[in-house]
Amino acid sequence: MRIAYSISRKVGNAVVRNRVRRRLKAVFSEIFEASDPPPVTSALVIVLPGAAGLDFAELKGQVLELMKKIEKSTESSA
Question: Is 54 helix (H, G, I), strand (E, B) or coil?
C-alpha cells in the first residue's frame, strides 16, 4: 500500500513535521503487519496541527478510529 502524507507548516517546524511523519509510517506499518491487506492500494493522509501533540499510542488510536469509520462508510455504500 502506498500512503502519502500532507503535513502543512501549521503542524510545526520541520523537526516536528518529520517526527509526525515517522510516527505515522510506524503506525501504518504496525497496523498492516497485523491485519489482512487493505482494500485500497493508495491513500492520502492529511495531518492537522493537533497531531503534533499526540504521542505514538494516541496517534495510533486516532488512526484506528478513522480506519473503522472508513470501513463502516464503505460497507454501507456497498
Answer: coil
